[in-house]
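Narrative progress, year one. The postdoctoral researcher (J.K.) led the effort to move from monomer predictions toward full complexes, under supervision of the PI. The following entry was the first complex the group processed end to end, covering 320 residues in total.
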Amino acid sequence: MGEPRWLDEREAHVWRAFLALQRELTGALERGLVRDSGLSNADYSLLVPLSEAPDGLLRARELGMRVGWERSRLSHQVKRMEKRGLVVREECAEDARGSMVRLTPAGRAAIGAAAPGHVDSVRRYLFDVLSREELDVLGRAFDRVLARIAADDDEADPTR
Amino acid sequence: MGEPRWLDEREAHVWRAFLALQRELTGALERGLVRDSGLSNADYSLLVPLSEAPDGLLRARELGMRVGWERSRLSHQVKRMEKRGLVVREECAEDARGSMVRLTPAGRAAIGAAAPGHVDSVRRYLFDVLSREELDVLGRAFDRVLARIAADDDEADPTR
DNA sequence: ATTACTTTGGTGACGCATCAACAATGGAGG
DNA sequence: CCTCCATTGTTGATGCGTCACCAAAGTAAT
């Protein structure tokens, strides 16, 4: 074991800034989305891949993989969205276990109304204040961290 | 109005990587914390400033400001933690409206047991794969985005 | 075909987060 | 003092996210 290595000043600063960024940016985007279109971040996350799919139709499993969610989370969210008329669940022809999620006209209208403002917000908060060089550094850094986490997960459960 | 400016390829990549990073990193840290010490991220967030305060005692308002939470969120979380014996609420002598939050011995033991492993996780996932130059870029970029969000909030409600 | 295992999805319970509403105190100005 | 307002904190309702568990259907081995 030995003495744990605490974060040095530079690391602590980046870490606390990351936590604050997560909190503030996610919060600001969510508030804007709710205010302008009545959609939550979770709604928006699902509406994007659905709106890009042919006929606004996706297998639940496929939708979950595209947004990186587990089955349970997806199921709960789809249920809430179905109750509000944004999507409908349908049975899957090829695989009787499966479930299809289809965008309704109301859902398509909602994402269409919300997207421009949301993208504007992301641009205003994030990309307007970052240089092209910084974007490159961020992109590479984020990818490396993601690869590290994925590798660590594999080590914990190689079968997945 | 006019046509919305969508994200270019570089921006879209960074944005999706950021969303994935948020999801995966937060999730991995939370799972490790729960597995190793039975604490959630929310618990940990509050235990850190409390453990650094004299006598493990902080005014609720002060605690909320240190972690960047609103009053309601803090109140709910403190209630849950009090039920598990990690903290206790006490009345505030100087201001009868106020409420003090005090770390219990069990709470201090919990953060002491959890912190080394948690810091190790942050280091392993994040700082082990980032260079010193990247840290500098990240720190400056994050700060600039935070300043932008804060400025935008002020514009929306200058009284705050 | 039967058994065993995996994949897919749903459900209930509980913790977390936000919002609106409320209560109580503190403080400033008449 | 008293009125008005801001500050501090709590609560209940609701949405979000995870976990443990279950059920049904596919799939592979015997």
